[in-house]
Amino acid sequence: MKKILLISAIFALAISSVCAKPKYLKDWQEGYMDIHHISTGRGSAIFFILPDGTRLLADAGDLGDPSRWKHKEIMPAVPNDSKRPAEWIARYIEHFSKPLNRDLYLDYAMITHFDTDHYGMLDHTAITVAGKPYKYTGMTHLANLVPIRTMIDRGYPTYDYPTPERFRKRNGKLFANYELFIKEREQQGLKNEQFRVGSDKQFVLKTAADKYPAFRIHNIAGNGRIWTGKGEETRSLIPANAPKGAALNENSSSCVFRLEYGNFSYYLGGDISGTWSRKKNNYWNDVQSQVAKVFGTVDVAVADHHCYRDSVNDNLLKALNTNVLVIPIWDLYHPHPNAMQRVVNNGVPEIFPVGITEARLAEMKEKGLADNIRKDGHIVVRVFKGGKKYQIFVLNDRSLDYEVLYKSRAFSSRGNK
Length: 417
Prior knowledge:
By secondary structure, the chain is an alpha/beta fold. It contains 9 helices and 18 strands. α7 (314-320) links the parallel β12 (300-302) and β13. α6 (287-295) runs parallel beside α7 (314-320).
């Protein structure tokens, strides 16, 4: 009899497991701050719902046709390749904006820097639309699916770093396509702005700023300049004694900001580099170490340059002393073992990949670098009312229902230092 009861109990448990309803992220509510690192397998996209419902998007990458890449290193598109990345990003934004009970729009969209995996690729996958002077790809596509009230990038309106000629030669036809998009916005009376290094008043809450005085976004570096640590004062990232014509590359011209909400803080640095050549003595190319001197500790950080070989150097990791590292991934070689070794050596407790291949994860495990890597997918940082606590949720990036696959413990925010 006991044996029969035991078998019945096991059978009932199995049935209940099969029939168990999937869990979903509870709706955003006023006072929460949600930071969604969206997984598409095609580049970076980070969607913020701020405490009063103000919405911000940082980047909307689209790598185009992966077959054109000679090294064939591009990850599969997620959830699938039936839509362009901007369409999946727009769907995601619409889904998680529903609790706001507002029209679908973004208060701000920002491009950290002008690389394809951050604002789009101009190849045969870019969409020609009648009556439009530019093609739809990445951010230009997204803006025609989700209206953008203020568009922010590193160079508007002159686009002259390091010089107008070098800027356009460096960024080519893709930037020319984007500039046509910006000119259309100007003609339509829409706002476009340059990322104002040193300012903490560019990204402001639009609905109830007075209720959340402990919220701010402080612009730290970008477009060849960095905050000095005093007021809104900035300086050039290139020293006065550098050779004539010295300039940062596109990655290290990325916009860098610090977000604070109560005791919670967050780091975003685009693709800035943490390496330099001793042979050329171009130490200013190590932008991460310069940022480290003025940034301070954070609770959550996004790994620069997708945790590739020049990412997260020791100076930056020590300065940030982050509890959580989020890694945006689209390449089969993200993250790089050298960068992950630095992450491990600096004792980062929790690592969340925004998508990762099984082969790459297996290699990290083989090298002893995967102990703190958690489940991959859409990575959501939810900061609770007042910013005292936060929690990480991993959502299924293969599903259009965005089920919760993993949730972390609740962390206590450490305060802004």
